[in-house]
Amino acid sequence: MSCILCKIRDNKAPSYKVYEDKHTLAFLDINPVADGHVLLIPREHTQYIEELSPEIWEALMRTLIRLVPSIQRAMNAKDSNIGINNGPNAGQIIPHVHIHIIPRPSKAGKLLFSNPARFKPRKKEYFEEIAEKIRKEIEAT
Ligand code: 5GP
Ligand code: ZN
Questions:
Q1: Cβ–Cβ contacts within 10 Å for residue 92, how many?
Q2: Cα(32)–Cα(17) distance, rounded to whole angstroms?
């Protein structure tokens, strides 16, 4: 299995995790479209959302509505973009279901997945600081 998200799930690849439970896991996107960009995944590997059982989908949605306000609070954002690229023709690069949670402070400007600025190298400290803020907010819920 060469799926990077399965490797992150299994701690065989590094990541900045912010939340995990029996069926779901969330960690920082390595090339954030905005500060605090989180990927929420089911532990189970499937490419398409329609391959998930209703039970797992429900678990994913429960985690989503728990995490969104916490991520927003951590990043001083009132709103978020939440999205799924469901298949390669829809821009899915990693074939393991993942939900993008992108907090949007009011003056954050345009949201562009293609913005080259998101691919600039970032220090470990950048990710650690954001992950810690988000974890604290989640733990407080
Ligand atoms: P997709 O286009 O498949 O919906 O999004 C894949 C996302 O995964 C992108 O936002 C990309 O930055 C992120 N990503 C790619 N490789 C890694 C990785 O190794 N670790 C983490 N945390 N995120 C990754
Ligand atoms: Zn996978």
A1: 16
A2: 14
Q: Ligand 1: distance of its center to the CA of 52 in Å?
A: 20
Determine if ligand 1 sits within 6 Å of the CB of residue 4.
yes
Question: In the prediction, which pLDDT does 108 show?
Answer: 66
Residue of minimum CA distance from atom 16 in ligand 1: 30
What's the pLDDT at 117?
A: 85
pTM as predicted: 0.96
- What angle is formed at CA 140 by the lines to CA 25 and CA 11, rounded to 5 degrees? 25
91 CB under 6 A from ligand 1? yes
Break the chain into its structural domains and give their ranges: 4-140
Q: Report which ligand 1 atom has the smallest distance to the Cα of 8.
A: 20
Ordered mean pLDDT values, 10 residues apiece, the chain (141 residues): 94 98 98 96 98 98 98 95 96 97 82 84 97 97 90
What are the tokens at 31?
């090339």
**Catalytically active residues, by annotation:** 98
Residues with CB under 5 A from ligand 2 (ion): 3, 5-6, 45, 96
Q: What is the CATH number of domain 4-140?
A: 3.30.428.10
Residue 106's pLDDT is what?
79
CB 77 within 8 A of CB 130: no
